[in-house]
Amino acid sequence: MRKSFDTFRKFFNLGALKLTKQFYRRTDTTAVAEELLGCLLHVRTPEGICTGRIVETEAYCGREDRGCHAFGGRRTPRTEVMYLPGGVTYIYICYGIHQMFNIVTHVKDEPHAVLIRAVEPVSGIALMQQRRQTKELHRLARGPGLVGQAFQLDTRMNGLSLTGNDIWLTREPGFETGTVIKSPRVGMNFEGFYKTVPWRFRISGSQFTSPAR
To answer: Would you call 49 exposed, middle or buried from its count of C-beta atoms within 10 A (0-12, 13-18, 19+)?
Structure first.
């Protein structure tokens, strides 16, 4: 996949190159998940701003998707944010430990989301290293739980707009993603069509993608 700046131009607030609500509210969540590759994630906390390039994502596509938290129309206090219009955060705790950062997509009452599985650190690296207690750059955000830890994303940020000043995404002019690997999502513990759909997207050759294969 080679995405030019012109491909994304209509989705930018050109003053800041910030992705707009229209980018997230498209009805093809798999396209959004793939096009998030190469985008820069920015997270502001009291300690400073950390920035990283998204290198791995997974798409979760609504009521019919057995891998999705909203499968079958499930609507709980945890999943309620998934029913909002796209362009907000969905952050939940996995195994009682890991803060999992997702981006809600699609339109109101269509519960779709993209899990951010891995990020390449770009700036604020010392802060990420402190949070992760490691100096190894390629290990800082190499997996969805580590993304949450490195960027200090937690459930208190659930439902935040991605067009605000706390968490936002941008696209660099001229950046090309290159080859994208498409494969089944990780941890699909069920049988049937949605177990093997190729909705996991990775930038080929990146040392920052998660070790799960």
So the answer is: middle
Q: Enter the pTM of the model.
A: 0.91
Domain 5-203 of CATH type 3.10.300.10: yes
Question: How confident is the prediction for the chain on average, in pLDDT?
Answer: 93
The Cα 193–Cα 184 span in angstroms is: 11
Q: Assess contact for 85 and 107: CB atoms under 8 A.
A: yes
Domains of the chain by residue range = 5-203
The Cα angle at residue 102 between residues 96 and 105, in degrees rounded to 5: 145
Q: Residue 11 corresponds to which tokens in the numbers above?
A: 């989705």
Conformational region of residue 167, where left means phi above 0, alpha means psi within -120 to 50, and beta covers everything else: beta
Q: Picking from 8-12, 31-35, 99-103, 163-167, which range would have the lowest pLDDT averaged per residue?
A: 8-12
Residue in 108, 93, 143, 114 with CA at minimum distance from that of residue 39: 114
Q: Give the distance between the most distant pair of CA atoms in the chain.
A: 47
Going by C-alpha positions, the residue among 37, 202, 42, 39 that lies closest to residue 128 is 42
